[in-house]
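Lab notes, practical 5.
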Amino acid sequence: MVHPPSVPVLVINVPAAFGMIWNIVAPMLDRNVRERISIFRADYKEALFDLINPEDIPEQYGGSCRCGGRSCRFHSPEELALAARVKELNEKFAKDAPEM
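Output from the prediction step:
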């Protein structure tokens, strides 16, 4: 996917191991691209709210959008199908994951 040069990219809720992957991938990216990308584990809300009004962010991401699925891009059929699939996969992998 190509983003206009001025658009920041926030990657949120990354697992701890993502840092190792990012350290390998980041040097291969153009400096301008690297500078636009911000990586967050769970501490992303302040950065997200700097870019997007909290009223436009669904509650599940820390915002206050309560559109109830009416005329909201976060409740489109595609978004709902994606959310259902992600939930299904998370449950499957959580069940199959070895105990630590």
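Observations recorded by the TA: Residues 11 and 39 are 5 Å apart (CA to CA). The helical segments are 18-25, 31-36, 45-51, 77-96.
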